[in-house]
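Delta-aminolevulinic acid dehydratase
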Amino acid sequence: MDKTHLVDTVTGHRRMRRNRKADWTRRMVQESRLTVDDFIWPIFIVPGTGIVDPIKAMPGVNRMSVDKAVEAVKEAADLGIPAIATFPDIEMDLRDVTGSQSLVADNLINKATAAIKKAVPNIGIITDVALDPFTSHGHDGILRDGVIVNDETVDQVVRAAILQADAGADIIAPSEMMDGRIGAIRRGLDAAGHQDVGIMSYATKFSSGYYGPYREAINTSGLLKGDKNTYYVSPANGTEALRDAALDVEEGADMMMVKPGLAYLDICWRVKEAFGLPTYAYQVSGEYSQIKAAAMNGWIDGERIMMETLLCFKRAGCDGILTYFAIEAAKKLAKG
């Protein structure tokens, strides 16, 4: 008796569900996988000792003094997380128009790097040279007569990058989006003997509304004068973002980053396809806080959405993700 069904005829005997019929087949054909090796954990550093200060807008995330950060990074390393990214929240009276504190060799970010490198030598340290944590106006560069000046800012971030490398940073991740910064930093690092220090370019950093909780975390939200539209990429412009990224590749970037993440998965894919460099997404504070807030209200399964979004970055071509979920997701993966 012929048991052919109409469905067999219309599909040409091709049934997509055959590969989905059991857990073992689904595992066997799974295309994208998430592991602890995919995580970079961003952390916030504050002056003082013994401080673990919860960030209201980012439930589960804390500002930490250097000693507490060292303890937290040890936990991250024990979980197998390969790298961290550090962001300082310095005293207000140290912030000025030019962000001069970025050029102090033993400033907060460099103290944290040295302490973490000494205590946890098997984890990578990624540092940012943008000036916004150090300026009195909250901008990523030097502000003169209402304009963020490109070339003077580049000169300063090169000097800051060398100091960060001197302190033990493994990768410099410049986020201020000034023209020419990647090539200038590469030349500066090499001239200072830091040929082994990599550059992870914020290749496409968009002028996004998703950064709000981060600005609370480093206390720049109340300082910011105007917006950052003259140096960040418009969310409307994918092709411009690729041109920006191409320049960073030509200037010597070792790795690429797309920021924010989930709303820009198309950019992640385009960057990876176009250049083939290791490509990362930054699942930024607004993305994190949205998931946390909805989960706290019982509107979504927070753990499931956390893991789904992280996996989607891998599907979009990312080699890894900077995420505030790193510890939580690493523990989830360890439990299986």
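thats it. The mean pLDDT is 96. The two ends are 46 Å apart (CA to CA). bye
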